[in-house]
Specification:
Number of strands of chain A: 11
Structural class of chain A: alpha/beta
Radius of gyration of chain A: 18 Å
Number of helices of chain A: 9
Largest interface: A-B, 35 and 35 residues
Largest sheet of chain A: 7 strands, mixed
Oligomer: homodimer
Distance between the termini of chain A: 28 Å
Strand content of chain A: 25-35%
Helix content of chain A: 25-40%
Strand order of the largest sheet of chain A: 3-2-1-4-5-11-10
């Protein structure tokens, strides 16, 4: 069963105070880049994997999607998502994301924002997504970047020139990484870049776009507290077509 | 014109003392991994890009290649390569690797070991390689890994747990990096992972294999001086098919 930290009451309350929970997609600085990778949404049947509070599900309908199925492990998040819409073309369902029970060849687009790096059984999920997409359907997703997830003791160090440097250790050791976030111990799954690409290929996806995302200079100027983040990519964004 | 540090007499002399210069392919710890990516060599027409002392060119002929053209920027390296063989099916030529003059659709395999990360005009080289390969021909290459080439002041730091950590800075700033190596100031070109993949795709290559290489535990045990190197990948190895 997928980790379900989002149903921890204290973690959930803290998560609800994040800009991306309060402001939705506009509070997520990587959203414009991820949006640019989407295939045409009007008329599409959309699967929102790790839908959380449903911000993308609602956006997709506003953008003309025919229907949206949002799946998530967290009952609390799904309750929030359901409370935020009365749209009959949006359906939400709780699912074990390691082996979700999804309709076959039923979607044109599978979207996932910052969820896949929590999934230990990624191969099972990607196989399920491939089955649930029509031939030619697209998977568009963001995950934490391998450089970001690699370290056993993540943090900024100081290099020989006195500049902040992100300390990379055990990059090639794929597997769980426990980090403190929002007052909780959160377990993420580190995968190498080649590990992500091999998993996509094995599930029958052909990579069409890959972006290593960091805040833009304008975003950094607006958020001085992110100053180091421009040095290394925080997120890996990708688009892949089901063969 | 491509940087030609290999024709600097002092650098060249130091390079000739490296294990991979003395022992050839067997002195290059990444060779078994790169060899495993090669398509069948018997009968193949082979282009060796940045052939250096010609160790791979000679290996390819021993493995049954029909012919080999080795190209390099360095007259000194080519002289060494020519002196090491009398095989009439091996030809060596000096070339500006940013815009090499190559025969069209004349090769089944283009191979390059640790040369492409010196090339500022990579797009021009990849376009030339694509033209020089037959449809379905393969490019198999090793380059320094983006995590390795990124830092402005490369070096091992110490993380919060007291462990050696590779300090990554300015990863997203693609371009030249000057490092001290073998007593010389060597300029390499840093590219992000997505930058390498996009350059291949733009030149018409379809990626078929990607490996982030670091020494194996056995290799690390045999080379205690590499002890930190197992933490992060030193090299990026890839195979790509000309579409």
């Amino acid at each position: 069963m997928t980790q379900n930290i989002y149903d921890d009451p204290d973690f959930h309350a803290a998560y609800l105070r994040l800009p991306r929970s309060v402001e939705g997609l506009e509070g997520a600085p990587e959203w414009p880049s991820l949006r640019a990778m989407l295939p045409p949404v009007p008329g599409a049947r959309v699967l929102d994997v790790g839908c959380g509070l449903g911000w993308f599900s609602r956006w997709a309908r506003q953008a003309g999607a025919a229907s949206v199925l949002g799946v998530d492990v967290s009952a609390r998040m799904l309750a929030g998502a359901r409370a935020a819409t009365a749209d009959p073309a949006i359906t939400y369902a709780q699912a074990d994301l390691e082996q979700p029970d999804l309709p076959v060849a039923a979607f044109d687009l599978a979207y996932s924002s910052l969820a896949l790096h929590y999934i230990a059984g990624l191969d099972g999920l990607l196989a399920a997504l491939a089955r649930s997409l029509v031939a030619g359907g697209m998977l568009v997703a963001s995950v934490e970047h391998p450089i970001w997830t690699a370290p056993a003791a993540p943090g900024w160090l100081t290099d020989a020139a006195g500049q902040p440097a992100w300390g990379v250790t055990c990059y090639l050791d794929e597997g769980p990484r426990a980090v403190d976030w929002l007052g909780a111990r959160v377990v993420k799954q580190h995968r190498t870049m080649s590990g992500w690409l091999a998993a996509l290929a094995q599930a029958g996806f052909n990579l069409t776009r890959l972006e290593e995302w960091a805040p833009s200079p304008a975003q950094l100027a607006a958020h001085p507290e992110w100053v180091n983040a421009g040095q290394v990519p925080n997120f890996l964004l990708f688009a892949a077509r089901r063969g």
